[in-house]
Design a protein that fits this description.
The chain is of the alpha/beta class and 287 residues long. The protein has a domain at 11-23 and 81-130 and 159-285: 3-Layer(aba) Sandwich (Rossmann fold). It has 13 helices and nine strands. The chain has a seven-stranded mixed β-sheet, with helices on both faces. Strands 4-5 form a two-stranded antiparallel ribbon. Helix 1 packs antiparallel against helix 2, helix 5 crosses helix 11 and helix 11 (229-242) packs across helix 12 (248-259). The protein starts with 10 loop residues before the first strand and ends in a 10-residue tail after the last helix.
Length: 287
């Protein structure tokens, strides 16, 4: 049997909630409305695969009926609860010219705002668009920003990101016409559903570890830091490009964590990764 060699990935797709941020945005909205228990239970069942996301998406939003201003507050909460090492990992991926995407079943305004603050272009971010009731609040002052913030939820875009099996369609759309290997990282069942359309699926359990995702992942990151994703995605050639730059430190951290118990891999992948990065502490041996 031919020995497997660790490769690198060019198109990197991230989930948002519980992957880039430690919160679930919809649950944070529910807290603002005093309905966190009901909404949180529905979210948990959907992410664990007990219910299809389609069965709970509309119910959660109808229960909350958020305002535009409350969604803006969730963008700030995303930023306040960013997963450890996310900015450094994304910066290193950009430095070695990997293309970054965010695909989320969260609401578009906070997800896009958060993603753009992380340096991801809006064209590479997909989330669920929301329609607001233009006649809510002081509608006759519609031109004033404060009035727009009081507009309440009316409906949502019933598209692929509101069902558990919808993210593969978005990956196909975003990667159309682009060459290179695809990698997806996420924590939930809707992320795991992308496994057949990417070259490597990485489960992330730094916020919450779901057994079905652990079982179905090619690679699973258990650490609170997302740093192990960097060597997994970039490979040793990517590492060689960051030697002597400010990005080497986060790469070294990721390799060290990936060599430990904080990352589990299929046996063939573990062997290939170990072979690629055995001498990572001696950059002269990275070829």
């Amino acid at each position: 049997m031919q020995e497997r060699r660790w490769t690198s990935y060019d198109l990197i797709f991230f989930d948002c909630d519980s992957t880039l941020s430690t919160i679930e945005g919809i649950d944070e909205l529910a807290k603002l409305k005093g309905k966190e228990w009901r909404v949180g239970l529905l979210t948990q069942k959907a992410m664990d695969g007990e219910l299809d996301l389609e069965q709970v998406y509309g119910k959660r939003l109808q229960a909350i009926r958020p305002t535009r201003g409350q969604l803006k507050a969730i963008e700030e909460r995303y930023w306040q609860t960013i997963v450890e090492d996310v900015p450094a990992v994304l910066a290193a991926l950009r430095y070695i010219q990997r293309e970054i995407f965010i695909i989320s079943g969260g609401l578009a305004e906070p997800v896009k705002g958060f993603g753009q603050r992380l340096g991801v272009p809006a064209s590479n971010i997909r989330a669920v668009e929301v329609e607001y009731n233009q006649l809510s609040g002081d509608w006759w002052r519609f031109y004033e920003p404060n009035t727009q913030h009081t507009q309440t939820y009316l409906d949502f875009d019933d598209g692929p990101l509101t069902i558990t099996a919808g993210k593969p369609d978005i990956i196909r759309e975003l990667s159309a016409g682009k060459s290179g290997r695809r990698l997806m990282i996420g924590d939930g069942s809707s992320d795991l559903a992308t496994r057949d359309v990417v070259d490597l699926f990485v489960g992330f359990g730094g916020v919450v570890a779901r057994q079905n995702v652990i079982d179905g992942s090619d690679v699973f990151i258990h650490t609170a830091s997302i740093a192990p994703l960097l060597p997994i995605a970039a490979g040793k050639r990517g590492y060689k490009r960051v030697i002597g730059t400010p990005h080497q430190a986060i790469f070294d951290k990721g390799i060290a964590l990936a060599h430990g118990d904080g990352v589990s891999m299929r046996t063939d992948l573990r062997q290939a990764f170990t072979e690629a990065f055995t001498h990572y502490d001696d950059s002269s041996q990275i070829v």
